[in-house]
Specification:
It holds the Pfam family DUF1007. This is ABC transporter substrate-binding protein. The protein has about 220 residues and is α+β, with helices and mostly antiparallel strands. The chain contains 6 helices and 11 strands.
């Protein structure tokens, strides 16, 4: 059972050590995110909802018992959710944050996920969790990127309302940049780098970029 519920992160680890031939996605996630603000205008964390593709969802559910066939409650999925969020730390939660304007940006770190749970709907698993910053971030500009450096996992932002600001000051503005196909960029990469197996940050070309400006 434990082997099954760790399959997602075990597969991701294999991708990190794989050569260039494996530099393409095997798991697909549709993501929605929220940037959470405190009353004083500081940013306290990021709330994610990641919906896995049907094939992976079916595989991950193998061996998990449910009272009703084809229906899984939060309690029944709790062990799977716990193992997933505990394993996320090893991969930096696939979420990268920088505070400050251009030329003065500072990397921000997260605490362990909280308020996490899994839900199963329309043949797909969705992992909900909140990433609190280690300390509230007081900044007029925040840049976020969501991606898997190995590109074993393909993150796509939800088409409708992919990112929202929760409790943000009225002056804050949000911009979202989705990754392009990336094939043209990949062709420009040095072939020798691929041959050497150095594709550890290949997925950065496919990063979803989120920028928040609060003048």
């Amino acid at each position: 059972m434990r082997r099954l519920i760790q399959c997602f992160f075990a597969m991701a680890m294999l991708a990190v050590t794989a050569g260039a031939a494996q530099a393409h996605p095997h798991v697909w996630i549709v993501a929605k995110s929220e940037v959470i603000y405190a009353p004083d205008g500081s940013i306290t964390g990021i709330r994610h909802a990641w919906t896995f593709d049907d094939m992976f969802s079916t595989y991950a559910l193998q061996g998990i018992e449910s009272k009703t066939k084809g229906v899984y409650t939060r309690d029944e999925l709790k062990p799977l959710a716990q193992t997933n969020v505990e394993s996320l730390k090893e991969y930096a939660f696939f979420t990268f944050a920088k505070a400050g304007g251009a030329g003065s940006q500072k990397k921000e770190k997260f605490n362990d996920p909280i308020d996490y749970y899994l839900e199963y709907k329309d043949s797909a698993l969705t992992l909900h969790f909140t990433l609190p910053f280690k300390a509230p971030v007081k900044t007029s500009a925040l840049a976020l990127e969501v991606f898997d450096p190995s590109y074993f996992i393909d993150f796509q932002l939800n088409e409708k309302d992919p990112v929202t600001l929760v409790g943000a000051p009225a002056t804050c503005k949000l911009t979202v940049q989705r990754p392009t196909d990336g094939s043209a960029q990949a062709q420009k990469l040095n072939e020798d780098t691929f041959l050497n197996g150095d594709n550890s940050n290949y997925g950065a070309m496919f990063a979803n970029k989120i920028a928040v400006d609060c003048p």
